[in-house]
Amino acid sequence: MEHVALVCHHLESKNAAAIPCSDSARIWKRLCFKARASVSIIALRKGSEMNLDSNEFINLLVARDPDAGRKVVQTYTRQLFHAALGIGFDSVSSEELVQRVWATFFEVLPKFERRSKLRTFIFGILYNKALELRREVNKFEVFDAIDEYMEKRFNEDGSWAKPPINPEEFAEATESLELVEKCLEKLPVAQRMAFQLKEIDDQDSEEICKILAVSVTNLGVILFRARNRLRECIEDRVKAKKAKDKSK
Amino acid sequence: MIPCREVVQILGSGQEASIRKRIEMRIHLMMCRHCTAYFKQLRMLKKISTKIFSSLSVDSSRTSAIELEAVKASRQKT
Q1: pLDDT digits (tens, 9 = 90+) for A50-92
Q2: Residue B75 belongs to what H/E stretch?
Q3: Does the beta carbon of A166 lie under 8 angstroms from any beta carbon of chain B?
Q4: Chain B partners of A181 at a C-beta cutoff of 8 Å?
Q5: What are the respective helix, strand and coil percentages of chain B, to the nearest 5?
Q6: What are the backbone dihedrals phi and psi of residue A170, each rounded to the nearest 5 degrees, phi first?
Q7: What is the pLDDT of residues B27-36, one digit of tens each?
């Protein structure tokens, strides 16, 4: 089979349209498909590196090949679990969440359109399941209080009315992981997920948009809200502490 | 001159800006300490949240339990 696959590759690179009869072309195509699949299986069994976004791999996955299934599960479970913790689920809920992700993944796999990367598809499911577990709606909110809040920090001419606090004080506050964690907890799932994928994973905006199912412009708005909600929360805590120290 | 509100808008959303806008922003940041403070805050947020994320411990016994279940699910034909 490996040889057949090689011949296929060779012929296709030399433009296989040369095969005259359409029937034999079809048979040839099928043969090539089978040969490729079995070569992929051999590669998988050998444990060698395989591109999880390749058509061959996805075909195996859809065909319920046990090795392909195991491979994808082993590749992404840790990442998913880590991401679930990152968006604020405790380890018990994270376990439940990731389990739901896999159950759904294998259910909807035949409908996977291959227009995005496999990882993006899986993280999209994680996002939707996270919303479900939190009972939040996957809807881009037109109104968010933070927008108004930020608007009030500026004068009409666009200059700062209430400027940011001094960077040293801010830096000091962020030394407390606990304080920042508390502020992170106040973010809705969409904002937290977007922030995490962008700032921590350094993902491409295009992939993040697909995961959250929003436009690039809306992603910008979501990130704006996430970052500002976080910094406002930290600033508030610094100010509150200062007021408390003063009253002592 | 680009106003502070717009600088904050671009920095906060991470939206793409034209080369001209980016140059204007640079100049603005050199002169405006408030916007510089804002910029520093965003950088600190990135740093601290990355630190928090990497400090989260992934429990291997939990992930292997999930993997076991998931591999089972992968074999069930729908």
Answers
A1: 788 888 888 888 888 888 999 999 999 999 999 999 999 999 9
A2: helix B60-75
A3: yes
A4: 52
A5: 80, 0, 20
A6: -65, -45
A7: 999 999 999 9
Say if residues B35 and B29 touch (Cβ distance below 8 Å): yes
- Say which of A73, A106, A158 has its CB closest to residue B4: A158
User: Is the Cβ–Cβ distance between A20 and A54 less than 8 Å?
Assistant: no
**What is the ipTM, given to two decimal places?**
0.93
Residues 74-133 of A with CB under 8 A from B: 74, 77-78, 81-82, 85-86, 91, 94-95, 98-99, 102-103, 106-107, 110
**Length of chain A, please?**
248
Instruction: Tell me which chain B residue has its CA closest to the CA of residue A74.
Output: B67
Contact B40 A195 (CB under 8 A): no
Angle between helices A177-184 and A167-174 (to 10 degrees): 90
* CA torsion, ordered A181, A186, A187, A188, to nearest 10 deg: 130
Q: Which tokens in the block code for residue A141?
A: 């909110």
pLDDT of residue A6 exceeding 90, the answer is no
Report the predicted TM-score, pTM, of the whole model to 2 decimal places: 0.84
